[in-house]
Amino acid sequence: VPDQFVHLHNHSEYSLLDGFSRLDDMVMRAVELGQPAIALTDHGNLHGAIDFFQSAKKAGIKPIIGVEGYVADGPRDERNPQKRSPFHLTVLSQNRVGYQNLLKLVSASHIEGFYQRPRMDREILEKYSEGLIILSGCPSSELGRYINNGDLDAARETIEWYGNIFQDRYYLEMMMHQHVPGQVDINNAIIELSKQTNLPMAVTNDSHYVRREDFEAQDILTCIQTNSNVRDPKRFRMEDTSYYLKSASEMQEEWTHLPEALTNTLKIAESCELNLTFGQTFIPRYSTPINKSSMDYLRELCYKGLNKRYGKPSEQVLKRLEYELGIIEETKFSDYFLVCWDIFNFVNERGILSAVRGSAAASLVLYCLEVTQIDPVEADLFFERFLNIERREMPDIDMDFADNRREEVIKYCIDHYGREHVAQIVTFGTLGAKAAIRDTARALALPLSLSDKLAKMIPPTLNIKLKEAIAESAELRNEIKRDSNTRDLINMAQKVEGSVRHASTHAAAVVISEKPLTEHVPLQRSTSGKDNSSPTTQYSMHPVADVGLLKMDFLGLANLAILDRCVKLIAETTGENMGVYDVPIDDKKTFQALGEGETFGVFQLESTGMRRNIKELKPTTINDLAAMIALYRPGPMEHISTFIEAKHGRAAITYPHDDLRDLLEPTYGVLVYQDQVMLIAQAFGGYTLGEADILRKAMGKKIPSVMEAEHEKFNTGALKKGYTKEQANTVFELMAPFAGYGFNKAHAISYAYIAYWTAYFKTNYSTEYIAAVLDSASGNPEKVGEAVREATRLNISVKPPSINHSGSGFTIETDTDGNDIIRFGLAAVKNVGASAIDPIVEVREAGGPFKDLEDICRRVDSKSLNRRTLESLIRVGAFDEFGGRGNLLETIDRIISTIQRQTKLRESGQTSMFDMLGESVPAPMVQLEISTDDDTTDQERVIWERDLLGVELTQSPFTREMRQQPNNIIVFSSDITTELAGQKRAALGQVNNVRELTTKRGDKFLSLNLTLLDGDIELVVWPNILEQIPDLWQNGNFVSIAGEVRERMGRVSISVETAHEYQLKAEGQAEHESESIKNEPAPITRAGFNEASQPRAVLNDPIQITHPSPMAKQANPLSLNPDAITDSLISDPDSKGTAEDATTNLPTDAEENDITDNNGHFLVHVKETGDIADDRYRLEDLMRLFVEFDGSDPVILEIDTGKKVVRLNMPFKVRSGTKLTSRLNELLGNNVVHSKTS
After folding, report:
1. Is residue 1058 within 8 Å of 1105, Cβ to Cβ?
2. Pair 704, 796 in one domain
3. What's residue 1087's pLDDT?
4. Per mean pLDDT, which range of 13-17, 883-887, 1035-1039, 1147-1151 is the poorest?
5. Does 652 lie in the same domain as 784?
6. Which of 33, 53, 951, 977 could lock onto 785 through a cystine, CB 3.0 to 4.6 A?
7. Looking at residue 5, what is its pLDDT?
8. Directed axis angle between helix 689-701 and helix 725-741, to 10°?
9. pLDDT tens digits for 370-399?
C-alpha cells in the first residue's frame, strides 16, 4: 500500500558530495510513489531545510525536517584523537518547538562541538529534547557499534538512556543494505532488544540518490569528495545500488517479517506537524533615547542631517523628506534605518571610507543620515525604486567599505548587537560546466589531456550549462560524436553538473537579529577557520530572507581602500588634508584624461572595451560616466554607439513618442536606466510609481502570464490617456526587453562617483594614486607588475625594495632632483608578507637604519627573517647596499645562522657583556664580509624580479633595446587586441613557457609565451614553421617574429609565420648594473595613449608576410606546476624531497629514454601550462600513480616552468616497467618523458 511507508532517512546534495538527491527531485519522487510525507536528514547540517520545506508544501506532501547528527564519544568540547569517531544518530523535528530545538542542537554541534565533524553530546540532546523524535541510527550509530562489537550491556545502557529522555519519541532504527559489515547481526539484535524493552522499531532506507539508476552519478560525487577514481579498488564506495527512494511495495517486500516497523514510519510522520510562516520581518529594535519611539528618533536625526546637508532646504527637498518618512512609518521600517545610521555613524567616526551601491542611493533619508554621499534630489533619483509601499519588500542597502577595513565594521556589529545576534551568511559552490568536466574526468580516471581539451571548448559565457555549451560549440559536438570516452564523460558530467560542491562564507552578506539567531536559523563556524570570526548561518541568503531576518551586504571594495591610502599619502607628502567626498565634480583635467583613455586603475573603466568607449564618448559630466557604466553590459551595449553619436551631435535624437522627450532627452533618446521604464509606465500607461516598479520586476522575470496581464494593463492605461493601441504596443515592446537587464540609475550614479573619484586622484595626484594602487595589489605580482608599468608610462620612477628605505607597503620618497618617486614595499615581495616585515621596520624605525649585515643580524628576530624571506629579499635587491646578490645568496646559510644565534642570545639576556660594570658592549659576532661586486647577470636579476615582484626593475640590455624599437614592432602586450584579428603584426620579445603539442594528424607544433615589456602574448608555431626553425624556440631566447593575429573565445594569439633570433647590439658589453625604471620618456608607449605626441603604427601599418598560415587545430598542453607542490611533499631528503634548479635545459620531445641519470632513478619530465588548477590536478594524479606502483626505484620529477627546469627528488620509490610507462601515457598523454636511468 503506497501510503503505508514514509522515508525518514534521506540525504540530499547538501550532504556535500555524498548525497546526489536534488531537493525538488526527492519531493516529487515521494509524490510519485504516493507517500504522504518525506524527511530530510543531511549529514550534520540543515542547509537545505527551508528550500525542502517549501518544495514539499508546494507539492502537497508533508515535510519532516531532520538531521543525521554526530554524537561525540564523551563531552562535545573534548578534542581527543584517541577517542572513537562520533556515532551517527537520526534526529527529526516533530513540531515548532522541536524545530527550534533542532536549530540550537545543530548550531551547538558546529560552534561548540566541532572536531573533524560537528558533534552533539548527551548533555545537549537532553537539554533540547523537547519536540524531537530520535531514531537510533545506522550501523555507525552508538547502538549499532556496540552490537557489532558484541557489547550488549553498553547497547542496553544506550537505549535505556535515550528511552528515558525521549520516551515514546525514541525508535530503534533498522535498514538493509548489502555489503554493510554486521548489518544482519545488528538488525537481529535490535529485534531482540525491542522485544526485551518494548521499544518500537522503524525501518529506513539510507537514501543518497532518488532513483536506482542514479547510483553511478552518486559514486562519481563520492570519488570527487575522496579524491579517488572508479578504478581504485580500495576507495570508499557504496557497494550496491539500494541507496535510493524505494517504493512502499519494495520496502514491504524486504520487511515482510516486520510490518509494524514499516507502519511505524507512518505513525512517526503523522505525529509530525511543523508549521513555518514566511513573510514576517524580525528587524532588530534600535535602542532609542528615553521616551522616544524609533520613528520619532529617526525623524529627529533626519532633520538634523537635513540642516547639515542643505543649510536652508528648499520646499521640494522638505516635501521629499516628509514623503519618504511617511512611507518608512507606514512600512514600519524605522528601526531598519536606525540600524543603518548606527553602522554608518561608527564608520564615519572611524574614518572608514564607504559608499552605498544600488537603489539605496535614491533615498533622501539615507543622505540626511550620512549613510549615502549622493544628493538624490540633485541627481534626480526617485525613492520608489528603493522602497515601494505597494511592493512592501524589505529595503536592501548594499554597503561598500574599504576592503582592508570591512572586518572592523563586522566586529563593531558583533560588539554592539551581540555575538549571538550577528552572523555572516553561507553560500554554496556548485559544479559548473568546466568543473563538472574536470572533476568527472578525474573520477573516471580519464586522461587530464582529454578533460583539459574539452573544458577549453566550453564557451566563456557566465554560468553556461553543458547543454548550452554543446549547442553553441560545434567543436565540442564533433568531439562528442568522434570519441566514446568524450561521450561517456560529457554524459556523466551533465548528471553531476550543478551539484553542491562546497560551502563557504558569502563575500558580503551579514545578518543581524533582535533575538539570538538560533531562534531563527542554524549556525556553523566560519569557513575562514579563524576562531574569532563571526559564525555563519547554515541557511543561504534566500532562506535567511524567507524566515524574516535582516540581511545586509557589507562589501569590501579595493578601490575605496586605494582612495583612502591615496589621501593619506597626499597628507604625508603635501600636507593637504583631502576629503574624497569633497573633491570638485567638474574637474576639466580629470574629464580630459578620461577622454584620452587614461583609465588604468579607474573603477569600472579599466577594461579594453570600456576604455575605447570612454575615449569615444569623451565624458564631460558624472551623468555621462553613469550612462556609460549602465550601457556597458550585455543588452544595452548595442546602444552605446547611438548614445555617443547623439551626444556629439553626429546623429539625430529620436523618441518613440514626443511625449517621452523629457524622460529620454537627458540620455539622448536612448533608454539607459530601469528608472526610465518606470517613468514611461507612469507617463504613458497611467501607472503609479509603485505599480511601475512592480511592472519593472515582472519584465525582469519574463513570466509570460504576468507579462500578458501587465501588457493589457499598460494598453488600457495608455488608451485612457489618449494614445492609440499601436502607440502603446510600440512603447511597451521598447521597455519590455530592457527592464530585465538595465541598471537602476542610483546604482549607476553611485558607481560613476567612485569612478570619478579614482580618476580625479589619478589625474591630479598621480604618484600618490599609483602608490596606493600598488599597495592594494600587494601580494598579487601580476597586478603589481601592471601598476609599475603604468607608473613607467606616466614617468613615475619606482625604486626597488630596500631594507633601509622601504616600508612594509609602498611609500613615496623625494629623489636628489626633488622629484617624488615610489619605493617598492617589502611586504609586496612574494614569499615575504607584512607579518614578517612589520617587526623589521619597527626595529629600524626605533634604532635607525641598519649599518651593515652584522647590524641586521644583531637587531632582527629570526622569526621575521627566515631563510625563504631573506632569499626573496636578496634576489629582488633589498640588500644590494650590503653586497652583490649572488655573493649574498652564497652566504645565506651563515647569515641565517648568525641571526638565529643572536636571537637566542637576546632571548636569554646575554646580548651584552659587562652589564655589572654598567657597560653595554655588544657580544662578539662572526664577521660577514660580503663583496659588493655582483656576479649575477642582468637576465638572472630580471627573472628573479619578475617572479618575486611581478615586474623587472633591473633594465637588461634587451629591455633597453626593446624600448628603442620602431613603432611597427610590438613590444607591449596591450597592443595586441581582438580588433587586430586577421591582421599581420611583428613583435619582439623573450620566449618562455614553451609547450609541445600535437595536431589531430599527429604533427608536432608549439604553443608558447612571448614576454614583452608589459606582459606576455601567446604564440602558436605550426608544424611547417617548426620544421624550418626547430631550434629557435628555447626558453629564454630573444626572438623577432611576425604573423597573423588570431582570436578564439576571447583569447588573442599570433600565429607565427616568420621568426629569427634577435642579436643584442651591445651583447657582452653591458655593465652589470641594477637600476630602477628611469624617468626617461619611452619612445614606445601603449597603444591608445599619447597618440598626439607619439603616433603608433600598430593599428594602422600591417606587416606584409608571404608565408601562408596553416589551419591545423590547436591541441592541449601537458604540465605540472611546481608551485602546486606543498611543503608536505617537499622537505628533507630523508622523508620528503628536495628541489633544486637544473643547470641545463632538458629535451622537450616525448620519446622515452631521452633522459639519463647515473644514479639509477626513474625520471619523469613534464612541462607546466600556467593554469594552476590544471597543474594541481596533474600533480595529484602523478602522486597517486607513484603510490600505486610502489617499488624500489627512486623518483625524480623534472618540471619545465618555461623559465627554468626544477628537479624534485620525490618521496616515492616505484616499480618501473611497461605497466607504469603505459599508465603514465594513459593518464597524462604522450607529452611526458619517463625513463629508468642508471
Report:
1. yes
2. no
3. 33
4. 1147-1151
5. no
6. 951
7. 93
8. 70
9. 999 999 999 999 898 888 887 777 788 899
Q: Are residues 637 and 712 in the same domain?
A: yes
pLDDT on residue 1203: 64
Distance CA 951, CA 32 (A): 63
Cα-based distances in Å from 24 to 48, 278, 701:
11, 19, 21
Q: Which residues, including other chains, have CB under 8 Å from residue 396's CB and lie 6 or more apart? A: 358, 359, 360, 551, 553
- Rounded-to-integer distance, Cα 953 and Cα 800, Å: 6
pTM of the shown model: 0.77
Distance CA(106)–CA(102), nearest Å, equals 6
Going by the DSSP 8-state scheme, the letter that residue 1171 receives in this structure is -
Of 213-227, 587-601, 904-918, 1041-1055, which gets the smallest average pLDDT? 904-918
Measured CA to CA, the distance from residue 21 to residue 11 in angstroms comes to 7
Shared domain for 261 and 365, answered yes or no, is: no
pLDDT digits (tens, 9 = 90+) for 672-703: 998 888 899 999 999 888 888 888 878 777 77
Same domain as 530, residue 381? yes
Which amino acid would we find at residue 912?
S
Which cell goes with 1212?
616515492
Per the prediction, the chain carries an average pLDDT of 83
CATH number of the domain within which 905 lies: 1.10.150
* 903-932 average pLDDT score: 52
812 contact partners, CB below 8 Å, separation of at least 6: 569, 572, 573, 767, 768, 771, 820, 821, 822, 823
CA distance 616 to 964: 30
DSSP state at residue 1049: T
Higher pLDDT, 771 or 1113: 771
Q: Is 148 exposed, middle or buried (0-12, 13-18, 19+ CB in 10 A)?
A: middle
What is the SS3 assignment for 466-508? HHHHHHHCHHHHHHHHHCHHHHHHHHHHHHHCCCEEEEEEEEE
CA distances from 564 to 181, 499, 557 (A): 63, 41, 11
Does residue 352 sit in the same domain as residue 229?
no
| 965 and 1083 co-located in one domain | yes
Residue 1031 domain flag: yes
Residue 1073 predicted with pLDDT over 80 = no
Q: Examine residue 922 and state whether it is found in any structural domain, yes or no.
A: no
